[in-house]
Give the backbone structure.
Amino acid sequence: RGTYEGEMTKDFDAIVFSELAAPLHKPVGPHQTSNGFHVIMVHDRHLANAEMREQARIATEEAKKKREESLDRNMKKEQAKQERKGARAQARQERKSTHDEF
């Protein structure tokens, strides 16, 4: 799948959409962007029509929603894990204090 200018971060776009930074059919990089390191190969550059831009926008929104849902699930799992860990520690402390009383 291709990418459209404005779909990615500005630092990524600056590399991909510059003919000097990324000539056609030649790998360039690694380049560091706010999303990590990338080796980039541009196969083609052309102007996107409105339909192509809309499809890219929808695909980007869907991918973002999936990432956010995954992050939410992972955060809830981690929170539950930490709560269980805290409850176990509290139970151990209570057992210890009960044992120390005798």
Summary: The first strand starts at residue 28 and ends at 33. The mean pLDDT is 83. The two ends are 70 Å apart (CA to CA).
